[in-house]
Amino acid sequence: LLLPSPPPVQVRGFGNEARSVTASFGVAMPTGVTETERDVIVAADHARYAAKNSGRNGVVFDSRHLAMST
Fold first, then answer.
1. Global pTM?
2. Which residue of 2, 31, 42, 52 sits 20 to 30 Å from the alpha carbon of 24, by its own alpha carbon?
3. In a 10 Å sphere around its CB, with 0-12 CB exposed, 13-18 middle and 19+ buried, how is residue 47 labelled?
């Protein structure tokens, strides 16, 4: 699941140059099966990279939760 994101934020860097700053987030939660904390962190990290690969500046939820909710 990919959510719409706000536009990049403009900040001033060294030399007063304008730079765009974006953020990509991956969200994961335990699925109810036996998982370690590391498993959840890895799932969130995979979701974060999916957000980056889809154009950055977005939020992606771990797809395991979408399958469980149907």
1. 0.66
2. 31
3. buried
